Amino acid sequence: MTAVILPPLMLVAVLVGLWQLYNARQTATDVFNKSLLAAALAVANDVTISGGDALSGRTRDILSDTSGGPVFYHVYAPDGVIVAGYATPPVGIPIPSEEASAPNYFDASYLGSQVHGVRLQNRTQIDGFAGVFTTTVWQDASVRAAFVRDLLLRSLLAITGLIAALGLIVWFGVRIGLRPLTDLEAAIASRNSDELTPIQRAVPTEVGGIVATLNRLFGQVTRSMAAQSEFISNAAHQLRNPIAGVLSLAEAVDAAPTMEESRKRSRDLLDAARETANLSQQLLLLERAKSISPNSAKEAFDLDMAFQAWADEFTQTKTDHPVIRFVSDGHLGAMTGDETMIREALRNLVDNALRHGGPQTTYIDVEATQAGGDVLFAVTDDGRGLTSGEIAAARERFRTVSATSGSGLGVSIVEAVARGHDGALELVPRPRGLRVELRLPVGQPCKS
What range(s) does the Histidine kinase domain occupy (predicted)? Predict the structure, then answer.
């Protein structure tokens, strides 16, 4: 956290330092220009009053120590004759084309040194000579540079001290402010994979949301692990009996006294193996169906084509009694979802109707219609049907509601497919038979 805060502070310090450098130069220029102008005005006034013979004591004091260093001067008459001051002028002073009424500041060279000065022109009369007299005052530029360095150094020292103090405050503040978080991190790190109870320790208000989210996550993981453990336990229990039956029948085949008896027991063994394989397949389908989510089911497909393919597949693998009919208006359009698992959901509904409808079942209708932004799959039969109590039992895993064998997972698989697509499953009892409705959102349209 400190490493995140300090670099911006250092950047601000650098920008402030650059601004202060510019400001110091401007301040120094203003101060020196005003000092030189005051000296020039004092010299011009004294020369006018004394006729160039003498300067007042106050003016000599100004010249001897203006802004930290001596000031040089000279005054020229209109004819170019020096009236007062130093005989050697600075080199490189710009000469105005005409009489200048305003002060003319300049940078020039004097005896090998760089100087900064000001030139004034004023119309006056000295010892009978009348005209424009020129007063020039200059000072070594190093004096101004030393002033800038001193001003900048003091500013930088103040900024550095301020940044250092602020850095220490931030460092201590971050350490103190993050102490509850580090304690929380240590408490979480000390947990093992089996300890998923909610965090009960007191935490700052700022991280209360994080802890609440962690507690919700712990709860979800706990429930998921409990459901997984329950499923594994139920699956092991359900597989134990079929596997034991397969082993028993295999031993019976091996111990058959005659070939005819061996063939009979082999058929029973084959049926038991098929039931066990079907149960294993249903368990795998249920696990895959539980992993579906609206974010993962992104397969785009043409629903009319898919529904026709499912109809061809189902009618080819089923007997002619009862009659299986697939009904659609042929304008279902596009759908986004898990096509394979939707097909398996319909297959399970048809299988349930075949297994549990009873011998009185004469037809099974599979309908697909548009219902607003959803597609409604309805599987209807005229078999024995289900009571309200049997409907609740049919939704439970490994529960069957008739004497017919089965895995008891068909409805659970369909419900998992419905939840994974943000859809819904409803079992509707009828005077004769049962109607099962699977409603799924169409999702995003297919891209052609």
Answer: 234-444
